[in-house]
Specification:
The structure is a single chain. The protein is of the alpha+beta class. Helices cover 40% and strands 23% of the residues. The chain has five helices and eight strands; from the N terminus they run E-E-E-E-E-H-H-E-H-H-E-E-H. The strands form three sheets. Strands 3-4-8-7 form a four-stranded antiparallel sheet, with no helix packed on it. It has a two-stranded antiparallel sheet with strand order 1-2. Helix 3 runs antiparallel to helix 4. The longest helix has 31 residues.
Length: 191
């Protein structure tokens, strides 16, 4: 038989395993949805489900997240060094762990592997072009190698990113890229 406790907010009797009080809707987990965004307290643990498929999680991926306001990127136009200093000073950080199925984790690993292989192939094309060709052919192979490396980097960034940060403040983290079925099981953010 399930153990009952009193809700600390409304003092109604609830099951000890409850994550949301059915009477006052207090969220004990600290995870909500805000349209297509997941909002969580920095110290909250995400539900033990895959963020990409909503199936039971088979592995967990720890993430060290950082975020700063978009306007900080404008400082690159002024000076890259000023941008770096300001970004480091005002950035917000959070550590989370996201659940994944083995299939989603394998898809991520494969994307990283393909990205590295494309980067190495691009580098090989550049080196091979310099070693064996002359004149315009060297320029063409160098450009082709650079294009292959850029495609590899893009592939890796897109395929390895399970969620992306849209904002971090002193108390909460906002995440994009979580599947709609996962979000549908969370209470609505009223923050």
């Amino acid at each position: 038989m399930a153990k009952n406790i009193l809700c600390p907010m409304c003092a109604e009797t609830i099951e000890a395993s409850a994550t949301i009080c059915p009477h006052c809707r207090e969220n004990f987990v600290g995870v909500w949805r805000d349209a297509n965004t997941l909002v969580m307290k920095k110290d909250a643990e995400l539900p033990d489900r895959c963020v990409k498929s909503n199936l039971p999680a088979e592995t967990h991926l720890p993430r060290d997240l950082t975020w700063h306001p978009v306007w900080v990127y404008l400082l690159v136009l002024l000076s890259p060094l000023i941008y770096i200093i300001v970004a480091l000073l005002i950035r917000k950080k959070a550590k989370i762990s996201i659940g994944l199925t083995d299939a989603c984790a394998a898809k991520r690993r494969n994307a990283i592997l393909i990205a590295w292989l494309l980067a190495l192939a691009g580098l090989g094309v550049i080196i091979g072009g310099f070693a064996t060709l002359t004149g315009d052919a060297t320029v063409i192979t160098t450009l082709a190698g650079i294009v292959v490396m850029i495609v590899g980097a893009n592939w890796g960034m897109r395929g390895s990113s399970m969620v992306s940060v849209s904002k971090i403040d002193d108390e909460y983290v906002w995440l994009k890229g979580v599947c709609p079925e996962y979000l549908d099981e969370l209470p609505e953010w009223e923050g």
